[in-house]
């Protein structure tokens, strides 16, 4: 990246995010929404689980973000014989100096693509999940901080059950988001092939528009996005409703509620707003909560998913009305939101009346 950017306000961060998404879109065809969601997770200081079939662009997406955000990148393919030290690093004897030195493992990076985490046994999964939660690694009797930012994009393959170790719910809770990329439409798939044919074999050239410092500055801007008390009550009510739901054995954790609020702030920032609306909470609730729920066993047979149940809860919990921009704040279209009547994109802030 060239000169460091000055990112002080949510509006500064939003402008940079738009450029980042446009640049990423040069490599990743037709996945703007998925790119926005991943960036929302990154801004909210979360880690993201990409659950999808092979060959749908997961590796491409991770590499693209690393390139455009100007972050160090490492990819680890998780395998059944992998040990925690293969990830975290270990103390090794250096014959030249006759000293034991710590050789850091691939986890010491800024953006880690953890590929197929369900292929490795629980011990190695736990080492990764500890690093994600603690932002540090305990190895060789010492704690070592990871670089900042430290972002994990993990993948797991939903079709192979044999020889895999599904992540326990307690560990899934460490992911801020779980999402799928899904297939491209025929038209977009054609466009992807067309771009590849006209470009040749070389990967698309991407500009680094930020660096670690800018990513951290953008996260600081998320902290400046206002959260009304009504929004807090709404997020808490949504989590509470998952806990009370008859088809759910274990509902959303407190970590999950906090995650929803931070993701909603990040989403507001991406929409160039410095305050959260109920629609932000609604938009992030499914990818933020569905993977953390434990459903009643018969739901599996009836093919009811966590996604279905979060959507059901969102339909039932009353949406707060009249959430307004805080005093002095401006809506995205430049006009000050008056009396909470209009939201940034012109839709009513009140959401569906209940
Ligand atoms: N949306 C897309 N835009 C551009 N190229 C794409 C897209 N989706 C897939 N591709 C291309 O398809 C190929 C496979 O993508 P990639 O390696 O990222 O898949 P993956 O999901 O990581 O697969 P695996 O699970 O096997 O690792 C790459 O050449 C990639 O460039
Ligand atoms: Mg891949």
Description of the structure:
With 354 residues, the chain is of the alpha/beta class. The chain folds into two domains: 203 residues, P-loop containing nucleotide triphosphate hydrolases (Rossmann fold, 3-Layer(aba) Sandwich); 92 residues, Helicase, Ruva Protein, domain 3. It has 13 helices and eleven strands. It has a five-stranded parallel beta sheet. A two-stranded antiparallel ribbon has the order 3-4. The radius of gyration is 21 Å and the shape is globular. It starts with 9 loop residues before the first helix and ends in a 38-residue tail after the last helix. The C terminus is likely disordered. The structure holds adenosine-5'-triphosphate and magnesium ion (MG). Adenosine-5'-triphosphate (ATP) binds next to helix 3. Adenosine-5'-triphosphate binds next to helix 3.
Which helices and strands occur, and which strands form pairs?
Layout: H1 10-27, H2 32-43, E1 48-51, H3 58-69, E2 73-77, H4 84-88, E3 89-94, E4 99-104, E5 111-115, H5 122-134, E6 136-139, E7 142-145, E8 151-156, H6 169-172, E9 177-179, H7 186-199, H8 212-222, H9 229-244, E10 248-250, H10 254-270, H11 278-289, E11 294-295, H12 298-301, H13 306-316
Parallel strand pairs: 1-8, 1-9, 2-5, 5-8
Antiparallel strand pairs: 3-4, 6-7, 10-11
Helix pairs in contact: 1-2, 1-3, 1-8, 2-10, 9-10, 10-11, 11-13
The structure holds adenosine-5'-triphosphate (ATP) and magnesium ion.
């Amino acid at each position: 990246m060239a000169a460091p950017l000055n990112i002080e306000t949510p509006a500064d961060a939003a402008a940079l995010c738009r450029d980042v998404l446009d640049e990423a879109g040069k490599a990743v065809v037709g996945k703007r929404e998925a790119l926005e969601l991943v960036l929302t997770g990154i801004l909210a200081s979360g880690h993201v689980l990409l659950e999808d079939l092979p060959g749908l662009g997961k590796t491409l997406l991770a590499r693209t973000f690393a390139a455009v955000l100007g972050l160090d990148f490492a990819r680890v393919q998780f395998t059944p014989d992998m040990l925690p030290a293969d990830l975290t690093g270990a103390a090794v004897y250096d014959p030249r100096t006759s000293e034991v030195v710590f050789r850091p493992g691939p986890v010491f990076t800024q953006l880690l693509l953890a590929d197929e985490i369900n292929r490795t046994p629980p011990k190695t999964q736990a080492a990764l999940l500890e690093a994600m939660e603690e932002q540090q690694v305990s190895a060789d009797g010492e704690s070592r901080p990871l670089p900042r930012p430290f972002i994990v994009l993990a993948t797991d393959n939903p079709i192979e059950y044999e020889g895999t170790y599904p992540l326990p719910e307690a560990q899934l809770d460490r992911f801020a988001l779980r999402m799928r990329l899904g297939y491209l439409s025929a038209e977009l798939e054609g466009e992807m092939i067309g771009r590849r044919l006209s470009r040749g074999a070389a990967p698309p050239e991407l500009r680094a528009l930020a660096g670690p410092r800018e990513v951290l500055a953008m996260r600081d801007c998320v902290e400046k996005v206002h959260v009304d008390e009504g929004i807090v009550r709404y997020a808490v009510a949504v989590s509470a409703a998952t806990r009370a739901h008859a088809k759910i054995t274990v509902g959303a954790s407190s970590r999950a509620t906090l995650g929803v609020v931070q993701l909603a702030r990040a989403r507001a920032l991406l929409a160039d707003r410095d305050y959260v609306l109920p629609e932000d909470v609604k938009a992030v609730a499914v990818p933020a909560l569905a993977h953390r729920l434990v459903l009643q066993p018969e739901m599996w047979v009836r093919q009811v998913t966590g996604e279905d149940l979060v959507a059901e809860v969102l339909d039932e919990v009353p949406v707060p009305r009249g959430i307004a921009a805080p005093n002095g704040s401006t809506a995205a279209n430049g006009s000050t939101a008056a009396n909470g009547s209009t939201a940034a994109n012109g839709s009513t802030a009140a959401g569906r009346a209940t």
